[in-house]
Amino acid sequence: HESTLPQFAAMVRKIYPGVEKLPPDAQGALLSLVYNRGADIDPKKDRRKEMFNIAALVAKGDLAGIATQLRDMKRLWPTVKGLRDRRDKEADLVANAIYGTGKIISV
Q1: Is the pLDDT of residue 101 over 90?
Q2: pTM score, two decimals?
Q3: How far is CA 101 from each of CA 39, 48, 53, 107, rounded to the nearest angstrom?
């Protein structure tokens, strides 16, 4: 959506500094994550642990680490297949992302 996408892209840039250096597929996966879960990365909240951990991994460009954190979030929805599948698909996007293809998160 024309007004929603820029708003969420800005949230991603704010909570995950350096995201624009990641491959477009990884950026898209994080945009999907924040669109679905919001931008709260409070490390004191157990339900936000993985989202908080992703920030340091983004800064290092650690795609495998980001994918692992996305998969680890599935612990929050042990019986909700749709959300578990969504995290797996986001993790797959990140894990298979290729560097050197430009930036998109500056929407």
Answers
A1: no
A2: 0.89
A3: 26, 30, 25, 16
